[in-house]
Amino acid sequence: MQNGTLLAAVDLGSNSFRLEIGRLDHGQVQRIEYLKETVRQGNGLDAERNLTADAMQRGWDCLARFGERLAGFKPAQVRAVATQTLREARNRDEFLARACVVLGFPIDVIPGREEARLIYQGVSRLLPQSQERRLVIDIGGRSTELILGQAFEARAMESYRVGSVAWSMKYFPGGQLTRESFETAGIAAKAVLDEAAEAYGRRHWDVAYGASGTVGAVADILQAAGFGEARVTREGLDWLVDRMLRAQHTDRLRLDALKDDRRAVLGGGVSVLRAVFELLEIDELHAAQGALRHGALYDLIAREDEHSDVRNATVERLALRFEADAAQARRVDQVSRELFLQLRAGASQADAAQTAGLARELHWAARLHEIGALISHSDAHKHGAYILDNADAPGFAMPELHRLSLLVLGHRGKLRKLESDWADATFTHQLLALRLAVVLCHARRDPDLDGFRVERRRDGARISVRPGWAEAWPQSAWLLREEVAAWQKIPFGLQLDMG
Predict the structure, then answer these.
(1) 318 in the same domain as 256
(2) Is the pLDDT reported for residue 51 higher than 70?
(3) CA-closest candidate to residue 353, choices 413, 304, 287
(4) Which residues are CB-neighbours of 1 under 8 A, at least 6 positions away?
(5) Residue 472 maps to a domain
(6) Fewest beta carbons less than 10 Å away: which of 83, 88, 204, 292?
């Protein structure tokens, strides 16, 4: 990625949507523009965990404005991520279908630990380089992330379903601020966060930082009140709670630096922050400049380089954890990528970047296609798919993991079980290449690919082999015929020419 390239990150948070635009300058991202809108999707979930029509419309309207600003950006320059509210929303697909259109770019719903990882990346990139052991806390609208790390490496990450919007709605209804509400909210927050006391306690870190949202708002209020710059202390929190109790209602709360968009969710946020202070024995929390959106920007840069893409390390760890046959995985990987490139032959130069990205996905699928075998040999593809759909996999968004799970599920057996959109030529070609590689490597040895070709056709694909290949490898030839028969049951024409 060249110096001067513009990059953008969109953060679809539970309380606010944010757009950060920066320019790449020798590995650093310099801010060009920052937009924030209070959307409050977090309080738009009904009792059935569906986003209301109003909440969806607020989100679409905001993203349309962001989309107008991003006109002219290429897909490789933009990363849009959604967090806890859309992780929870049962009708998120309905929201995302239109949201991606109005924004003009895909939106990744990321798992909680991936959110935590990106938060740490954003915070660490905007801090001075140091070997201090760091605790990073981000109290969002519906989730709280805790991360331990050193330098640019996040070493322990967790996401908890407790946040400023959710706690304000539940324990401070109508904006009432009472002593009983703070006590109840604090106990409830500790009940959720209690398991973090040991893993993220005082002995594990040297300095504590707070990112974005609640911490930033509280630090601003305390600084305006004379408690010091860009930090939160126990004394300051006690003072703030006292002021809130005196006001008795958010509408009557008068504090310098309190912004209107934070007023309604301050009670819940402060109650969670106090719980974190007490459980983790924090005396002072420094307000950090970096946040999730900054981590997403630096992740864009890392993804451009296959060697620095954290997803590669994640795949290797999963393969090792589930004791996948490494030699077979490398064999299937090599063959599937060779066949996939044959299927992509003739693609335009503009599609070269897409082809590289798709080949990398196929590489991951090949490396992981047998991870379910540790559970069951006969149903390895099903168990492998389940693992990927439910794994905490650093670097991966939930849609990316699901696409990998579909490739793993479909690498053998019937195709109709996938319920896939077979009009998606990129996925279909990936799956075909993977299945053919598994067939050709069935004996767990390097296959004879001399004269073996697969080419894309308008209505499907055609496999051809050199004369005598079928006689030399009768088992492979038989499996290929079975494979062609399997593809006849879906709307994709696969032909086989044995010469």
Answers:
(1) no
(2) yes
(3) 304
(4) 24, 301, 304
(5) no
(6) 204
Q: Are residues 137 and 105 in the same domain?
A: no
Q: What does the block give as tokens for 46?
A: 């009904």
If asked whether residues 77 and 140 sit together in one domain, one would say no
- Predicted confidence at residue 421, as pLDDT, reads 75
Q: Which residues of 231-250 are buried (b: 16+ CB within 10 A; e: fewer)?
A: bbbeebbebbbebbeeeeeb
397 and 359 co-located in one domain? yes
Q: For the chain, what is the mean pLDDT? A: 94
How far apart are alpha carbons 415 and 488 in whole angstroms?
Answer: 10
Cα–Cα dist 409/220, whole Å:
50
Question: Which pLDDT band, with edges at 50, 70 and 90, does 349 fall under?
Answer: low
DSSP string covering 443-486: TSS----TT-EEEEETTEEEEE--TTHHHH-HHHHHHHHHHHHH
pLDDT in tens, 122-137: 999 999 989 999 999 9
- DSSP letter string, 75-100: GGGEEEEE-HHHHH-TTHHHHHHHHH
226 lies in the same domain as 326: no
- Phi first, then psi: give them for residue 335, nearest 5 degrees: -70, -45
Name which of 364, 324, 359, 369 is nearest 339 in CA terms.
359
Task: Give the Cα separation of 267 and 168 in Å (integer).
Answer: 6
Asked if residue 312 and residue 284 are part of one domain, the reply reads: no
Could you read off the pLDDT of 131-180 as tens digits, one per residue? 999 999 999 999 999 999 999 999 999 999 999 999 999 999 999 999 99
Kindly state whether residue 494 falls inside one of the protein's structural domains. Answer: no
Domain of residue 187 covers 127-288
The closest of 118, 126, 127 to 30, measured between CA atoms, is 126
Among residues 110, 136, 151, the one where a domain terminates is: 110
Residues in the chain: 499
**Spatial distance between the Cα atoms of 131 and 149, rounded to a whole number of angstroms:** 9
Question: pLDDT tier at 350 (50, 70, 90 boundaries)?
Answer: low
Q: Percent of the chain having pLDDT more than 70?
A: 99
Which of 238, 261, 288 is where one domain is finished? 288
**Do 166 and 258 share a structural domain?**
yes
- Residue pLDDT, tens place only, 358-396: 999 999 999 999 999 999 999 999 999 999 999 989 999
To the nearest 10°, the Cα dihedral for 348, 350, 353, 357?
Answer: -60
- Same domain as 280, residue 132: yes
Q: How confident is the model at residue 348 (pLDDT cuts 50, 70, 90)?
A: low
In a domain, 487, yes or no: no
Provide the CATH number for the domain around residue 58.
Answer: 3.30.420.40
Question: Domain total for the chain?
Answer: 3
What is the rounded CA–CA span in Å between residue 181 and residue 407? 49
Low-confidence winner among 263-277, 294-308, 317-331, 475-489 (lowest mean pLDDT): 294-308
